[in-house]
């Protein structure tokens, strides 16, 4: 009769320990390979160095300038005057703007996942308390983190929406990179996918399709003139001249036109493309 040695039952345990060690070693090697999550994280660009200097149109004026010799057309009954502001405007004289005919405002809330506008409360609540319809926008840096991460950060820091009749859907500011490569080092497909990620996350969190701020020139250069968003996301276009000019692919009309970066009181002035009741409809969803 064979006899089992007392140490034999412990051998499978030692084998399992050895196997676990091998698996951990393999996993460590995999995490060091190109294309893994760890490697992807190291390829992210640094967080913005001067977010207080980045606002809707800050890079448009720098790269595209203004249209010389033209002045914006007079406002009409089928348009509504608005402004956009960020921390570089400081404490805004909302009563002065209201008395001049301004009826809506967009306020920069965030940039990347590290910056919040220190003047946001005065600007966002101040415009609302004066009677304006207001909304928040996010300055995108697609090379620092994912679209989902930045949309989440935006919603959590002032970019939410409520059906109160005075809150516009959030806006995504896509323009020239203030910190390096014009298109953030991404391919056209990469940028389009980043924006899809941002918009999908924002809608999941708020129930609204966000507005997109972008110029035709940047859009053509960096997205290959994608038509992926025109049917859903309202267009806020900057062009400093007498008309909104050529629109990016996919849009048959603009919703908001940022027509100057040197207007009265705050600089950036906009026109909503429709009467006040249509602006209220946009706010109500």
What secondary-structure arrangement, pairings included, does this model have?
Layout: H1 11-31, H2 37-42, H3 58-64, E1 80-85, H4 94-99, E2 104-111, E3 115-116, H5 120-130, E4 133-139, H6 147-156, E5 171-173, H7 188-206, E6 211-213, H8 216-223, E7 235-238, E8 256-260, E9 269-272, H9 276-284
Helix pairs in contact: 6-7
Brief summary of the model shown:
It contains 9 helices and 9 strands.
Question: Could you characterize the architecture of this molecule?
Answer:
- It is built from nine helices and nine strands.
- It has helices at 11-31, 37-42, 58-64, 94-99, 120-130, 147-156, 188-206, 216-223, 276-284, and strands spanning 80-85, 104-111, 115-116, 133-139, 171-173, 211-213, 235-238, 256-260, 269-272.
- It has an eight-stranded mixed beta barrel with strand order 1-2-4-5-6-7-8-9.
- Helix 6 packs parallel to helix 7 (188-206).
Q: What gyration radius follows from the Cα positions, in whole Å? A: 25 Å
Report the sheet with the most strands, covering strand number, pairing sense and barrel closure. 8 strands, mixed, barrel
The termini sit apart by 84 Å
How many β-strands, per DSSP? 9
Low-confidence stretches: 1-43
Approximately how much helix is present in the residues? 25-40%
Separate helix tally = 9
Mean pLDDT: 85
Order of helical and strand elements: HHHEHEEHEHEHEHEEEH
Beta-strand percentage range: 5-15%
Name the structural class. Answer: alpha/beta
* Mass-distribution shape: globular
Strand order in space, largest sheet = 1-2-4-5-6-7-8-9
């Amino acid at each position: 009769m064979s006899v089992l040695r007392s140490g034999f039952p412990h051998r499978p345990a030692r084998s399992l320990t050895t196997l676990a060690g091998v698996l951990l070693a393999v996993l460590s090697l995999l995490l060091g390979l190109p294309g893994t999550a760890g490697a992807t994280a190291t390829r992210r660009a640094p967080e913005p160095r001067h977010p207080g200097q980045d606002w809707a149109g800050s890079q448009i004026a720098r790269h595209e300038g203004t249209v010389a010799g033209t002045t914006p057309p007079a406002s009409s009954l089928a348009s509504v005057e608005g402004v956009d502001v960020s921390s570089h405007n400081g404490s805004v004289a909302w009563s002065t703007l209201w008395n001049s005919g301004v009826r809506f405002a967009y306020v920069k809330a965030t940039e990347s996942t590290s910056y919040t506008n220190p003047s946001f409360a005065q600007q966002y609540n101040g415009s609302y308390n004066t009677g304006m319809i207001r909304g928040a926008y996010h300055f995108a840096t697609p090379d620092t983190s994912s679209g989902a991460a930045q949309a989440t950060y935006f919603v959590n820091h002032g970019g939410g929406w409520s059906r109160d009749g005075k809150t516009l859907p959030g806006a995504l500011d896509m323009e020239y990179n203030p910190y390096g490569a014009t298109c953030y080092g991404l391919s056209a497909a990469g940028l389009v996918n980043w924006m899809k990620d941002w918009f999908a996350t924002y809608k999941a969190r708020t129930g609204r399709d966000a507005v997109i701020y972008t110029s035709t020139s940047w859009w053509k250069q960096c997205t290959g003139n994608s038509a992926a968003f025109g049917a859903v996301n309202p267009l806020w276009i900057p062009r400093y001249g007498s008309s909104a000019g050529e629109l990016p692919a996919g849009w048959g009309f603009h919703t908001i036109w940022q027509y100057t970066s040197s207007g009265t009181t705050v600089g950036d002035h906009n026109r909503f493309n429709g009467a006040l009741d249509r602006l209220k409809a946009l706010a109500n969803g």
